[in-house]
Amino acid sequence: MGGSAFSSRSNPLFTPRMSPGVYRHVLRTCQAKLRELFVAVASPIEGPAKKDHGDIDIFVALERDDISSSFGIDGACTSQQDHDPLRVAVRLLGAEHWIRERPTVVNLAIPWPKDLHEEGPSGNSPRYIQVDLHLCDSIEHLQWMLLRNAHGDLWNLLGSIIRPYGLTVDEVGLHIRIPEIEHLNKKLSRVLLSTDPFEILSFLGLKYESAQWEQSFASLEDLMEYAATCRFLWVRPEQDESATEGEVGDFNKGTKSDDRRRIKTREVCRRWYEEFIPECRAAGRFTTPRSTRDSVREEAFEQFPGTRQVYRNRLIEWRREMQRHGLWREVIKTSIPERQEGEEEVVDKRHLRSLAANALKKIVMHDDYSLGIRPAIPLRNEDGFYIEERVRQFVVDNWRQIGEAAWEASQKKHAEKLAEQGAKHKSKEA
Fold first, then answer.
1. Tell me: the pLDDT tens digits for 345-375?
2. Which of 146, 112, 94, 134 is nearest to 21 (CA)?
3. What's the CATH code, domain 20-139?
4. Residue 192: in which H helix or E strand, if any?
5. DSSP letters of 56-117?
6. How far is CA 91 from the centre of its chain?
7. Structural domain boundaries in the chain
8. Does pTM surpass 0.90?
9. In 3D, which of 148, 161, 157, 158 has the Cα closest to residue 271?
10. Vertex 228, ends 222 and 230: CA angle to 5°?
């Protein structure tokens, strides 16, 4: 989305912005053709007061059976196994160039309609229109994507409102983030709450019973006022300088880098941060926080059954993994005593401590008891976490015995390898 897929390439195409008339004509034409191929074809509600358009977004789902096995990209018959509906759509729309960086999205460059040529900007370069085609895996997914991309930058505003409360909206649905994980693994930190548009709007406190999701807003002011009805909006007092990045209500210094970029490039975002929020602050609107991240999390668990357990399981598994990362370095290795001054050690066993450490790692962390030595009591609790004091004591009490057993095992393996090599050598000589 955005209309720059082809103009920003090393060999750019001329894809000028479209007037509303050109946009609507090409949109209707493309949608009519795509309905020959797909049952569901739709485009998001436009942003308010659009003077021109950079590209056309179309979402499709449920391929028609009578078309699905007919033609490939070059018009040749294809097998069902090789069939790709987006490649068929490329040919159907007469695209002369196309880019596909994701399996479910293709950017098309179709020729500017000759009958509308006079409406386009002047120039000698061939003119193209960028059409972004999105394949959805179900009607439900298509409905969500239409809502997620409706009203232009609306969801950029809503995202900035809900982000500090640990909520994220993406192409799948509404998620709640786990604080302990999100700074190290954003994707893993997300726990899906819902994919249902009306459930999500309801949870955010946004109205949907009238025309808000049926037609464009009349103005940017109307769009921003609607975004402000989100029950999580809080405008931090300007004199409060204690906020850190991502904190609740922080619309100033802590604004996320993506938002700062949008402020520079997107009029709606710029006016939201530089005009609407300051005006609300001056008027005393939304200056009292109504929720906290903890309270929103609890509300989410109550509103969306089953998510509490998913959240808990994800967090426990993460903590287990984090503990495992530190167990080897910070517990097992450090619990093997350093060689004392004057301590005698058989030369052949001078690597005893190293052998012991590696063998202990296998025993403790991988339940490998091939040396015939195992802990007398469990080293983990019922949630699977290591009881580190037990691990330390097991290492202290058993490292030498385990090291010697590992040394004996390595010597035996080495002897077997030598014997095998000798047998092969004799076989060749014979």
1. 544 455 888 899 999 999 999 999 999 999 9
2. 112
3. 3.30.460.10
4. strand 190-194
5. EEEEEEEE-HHHHTT--TTS----TTT--HHHHHHHHTT-SEEEEEETTEEEEEEEPPGGGG
6. 31
7. 20-139, 154-305, 332-429
8. no
9. 157
10. 125
